[in-house]
Amino acid sequence: MAFRRPPTAQEAVLNELRRAIVSGELVPGQQIVQDVVAERLGVSRVPVREALKILEGEGQVTEILVRAAEDLVARYEHHPDEYERKYARRLRELVALLNEEITKRQSGD
After folding, report:
1. The domain that contains 50 carries what CATH number?
2. pLDDT tens digit string along 5-38?
3. What is residue 83's predicted lDDT score, i.e. its pLDDT?
4. Residue 3 falls within a domain, yes or no?
5. How far is CA 43 from the centre of its chain?
6. Alpha-carbon distance 80 to 57, whole Å?
């Protein structure tokens, strides 16, 4: 039996934010307030802040700003063309890796 480790708090927050984006629960332009997310998910602000930074790096949220000493706010933005280009490029990379692996296995390496 294979055991999987439970997700970290950051991973759980990231998964929940992604779910909210995909489901349409978060709409483009909507603010994501760190303290509100932390309270709703029962976690501290740190994993929320880390998850928002990951989403910012992916281009899914913008304008991460601090309104007060501890109040972090991000804005969800939707740029379908940008996502399509990013994921199409990643898909091409994965196909190339799979083709390399298939070639290696067929040649007996």
Report:
1. 1.10.10.10
2. 888 999 999 999 999 988 889 888 888 889 999 9
3. 62
4. no
5. 17
6. 16
